[in-house]
Amino acid sequence: MANRLDAVSDSDGAAAAADGRAIMLRSVSMVFGGGSGGVQALQNVDLDVRSGEFVSLIGPSGCGKSTLLRLIGDLLQPSAGTLSVNGKTPRQARLGREYGIVFQQPVLYDWRTVLANVQLPLEVMQVPAAERRSRALELLRLVGLEEFADRYPWQLSGGMQQRVSIARALSFRPAVLLMDEPFGALDEMTRERLNRELLNVWSDTHTAIVFVTHSIAEAVFLSDRVVVMSPRPGRVEAIVSIDLPRPRAAETRDEPRFFELVATVRRHLREVDE
């Protein structure tokens, strides 16, 4: 099965990359376990994410949002269907370091400085030391943490640690960034501030982002499109295009159109939950 999936992905993926699709999923399903006790997490998911696009996944708890993200990131293998990332299978893309991943809890090494944490993927890739340092400092400037380069993670707040995680995920210039509820554990004000900072980073890097969240307002504020998923087994039930002008600022959340779009996404969520 794995060989067949890879072969199909190679064929379809080349066409997807040619027309600007960073990610393509076709009829993707995921079943955990086998036999009568198997649990179907995802069912026949079709989705395209264009290069440089910001797409959020939202849906009820347990609907398979994080599972879908892990399939794209080659952390899980699909039970059926085809996936491509930049025209390659997820495994080829992972081995080619074509995407970074940021989880809900920052995974940093306490014994390494902030600068050393950001440089870690570049060390693994054997990038020369001077280039590693230069690129890491550039990213720390981008996330507003250059002055904390010599600190250790335990000396930073949770929001600052998450910014370090984002900088590290972008250190090797991936074409795709996968984010699994990265701000879910933060207070509302910190979360909104990091939303704005993430958009600044995104506009500078032109990275395609797939972002999992439970917050409707966060999804609308950040995204080009919001994908609404059904309860398990997760399916794509609706895709809402977000036509708020960019760049977006704190005042964007006070605009009538913002509230209209939040209401639209909320209505779709209510419909899938009925």
Characterization of this structure:
The chain is of the alpha/beta class and 274 residues long. The chain folds into 2 domains: 2-98 and 174-273, 3-Layer(aba) Sandwich (Rossmann fold), CATH 3.40.50; 104-173, no CATH class. 41% of the residues lie in helices and 22% in strands. It has helices at 2-18, 65-72, 90-95, 114-124, 129-142, 158-170, 188-205, 216-222, 256-273; strands spanning 21-32, 39-50, 54-58, 80-85, 99-102, 176-180, 208-212, 225-229, 236-241. The strands form 2 sheets. Strands 5-6-7-3-8-9 form a 6-stranded mixed β-sheet, sandwiched between helices. A hairpin with a 6-residue loop joins strand 1 (21-32) and strand 2. It is globular, with a radius of gyration of 19 Å. The model is unreliable at 1-9 (pLDDT under 50).
Reconstruct the topology from this structure.
Layout: H1 2-18, E1 21-32, E2 39-50, E3 54-58, H2 65-72, E4 80-85, H3 90-95, E5 99-102, H4 114-124, H5 129-142, H6 158-170, E6 176-180, H7 188-205, E7 208-212, H8 216-222, E8 225-229, E9 236-241, H9 256-273
Parallel strand pairs: 3-7, 3-8, 5-6, 6-7
Antiparallel strand pairs: 1-2, 1-4, 8-9
Helix pairs in contact: 4-5, 4-6, 5-6, 8-9
Rg measurement, Å: 19 Å
Assign the CATH superfamily of the largest domain: P-loop containing nucleotide triphosphate hydrolases
Q: Any low-confidence stretches, pLDDT <50, length ≥5? A: 1-9
Q: Could you tell me the mean pLDDT? A: 90
